[in-house]
Design brief:
The structure is a single chain. This protein is an alpha/beta fold. It has two domains: 100 residues, 3-Layer(aba) Sandwich (Udp-n-acetylmuramoylalanyl-d-glutamate--2,6- Diaminopimelate Ligase, Chain: A, domain 1), CATH 3.40.1390.30; 117 residues, NIF3 (NGG1p interacting factor 3)-like (Udp-n-acetylmuramoylalanyl-d-glutamate--2,6- Diaminopimelate Ligase, Chain: A, domain 1). The chain has eight helices and eleven strands. 38% of the residues are buried.
Length: 258
Amino acid sequence: MITVKDVYNQLNELADVKLAEKWDNVGLMLGDNKSNVSKVLVCLDVTTKVVKEAIDNNVDLIVSHHPLIFKPLKSLDFTDDFKSNIIRDLIINDISVISFHTNLDSAKLGLNDHLAKLLDLNNISVLFEHNLDKEAGLGRIGQLSSPLSINEFVDYIKERFLLDNVSAVIGNEKDISSVALLGGSGADFLYSLPDVDIYLTGDVGYHAALDAMEMKKNIIDIGHFTEHLVKDLLVDYLTKLGVDVIKSSVEKSPFKIL
């Protein structure tokens, strides 16, 4: 039988926990390493809906990208605290949780590499090298096979990343050839970018957008939820263990365009 520890070890070969940022919380969030695993659910976030989905599908283990437990828990209040109730339901139903976050972002064949390959970028390299591994690090940079106008490029990434809409900061009108990307919240890296035609990331705030305009840089906010695309990578990787792996189908971006 496959155990929780076996799944953890398999994931650690893909994305060593040593690659995680110091502020992050990764690894086994909840459960017993010796528990048997027949079915795994992969998701972006461990939400109430995702836990119900796991229970309904008789899942033994949830593998999430974002940590189930990030901020320290001071208490477990089952009256009206959603996080406490998520943890309670996981324990009652004997569902373990493993979360691989910034280590999966940085890994050589991790999330950012996956996103770059979805765009069919050429000459892919690490945007910000990790001090433990030059082949790993946050973000990726690469080249399009042929230049695209801004409008053409927006249509292209919407198709490749399955996006209905994006927000863009157009600092210049040059055609796009070189692309930098960093899944999740990467606006703070704007100021240390190499010379590229466009930068793709999420959670771009007003001040970063204003600064980008001043610096004549192009940014497209692809949203934090774009990281859900990592589920395909996790399914492919974990299926090699011989367990049943399913993708969460209940996750949606919390934002609506009204």
